[in-house]
Known about the structure:
Largest sheet: none
Low-confidence stretches: none
Shape: rod-shaped
Helix content: over 70%
Number of strands: 0
Number of helices: 6
Structural class: mainly alpha
Mean pLDDT: 81
Order of helices and strands: HHHHHH
Oligomer: single chain
Amino acid sequence: MENELLIALIGAGSALTGALIGGAAAVVGASKAARGAYLGSLDVTRRTAQREVYAELLRAAHAYEAGTGAVLESAGFLLEDLFNELEGLPPRHSGSERSDFRRAISSAAEPQPVAAAARQVELEGPSRVAAAARAVQAAAGQLAATLNGIEDGFEDPGACVRPPTPTDRPREHFEALKSAISTFADIARKHLNHR
């Protein structure tokens, strides 16, 4: 009888130990599953927010690209006329045509929406995407400075810095903007699709 009691006690102890180990494993497993579900939903929320600000930068940058692309020819005409005036030659375009060109350029050379969207991307990160967003912002700012410089040259031709802006400079800065936008889109896509 003593052996039977001893066997029963050992069996009960083993069952209790097994239950404790199994229960602990279940608690740890449930905790890991809950943490994974929580972190998974955070990751989805974060990627959704990133996707939205990345898309906003692309919308703003493409709108700026379209607006400035539409006035590149006008910018070239204005530069040619400005150079002609500086050289004492007659301009190719009338005063009203040049006024129309200047108005179009002035309204197109507003990179603030691009800058605002780029700052939002910097908040969401990560750093490599933020750096690409800053490059888009810098390219838009550089193009705006070039286009606004043409306007400044017409307001005060005597203040025009020598050597003057080459007629192909607006196009070069426009191409740099397109390249920066493309690079940003590539880096953002890779980040969003990376797991």
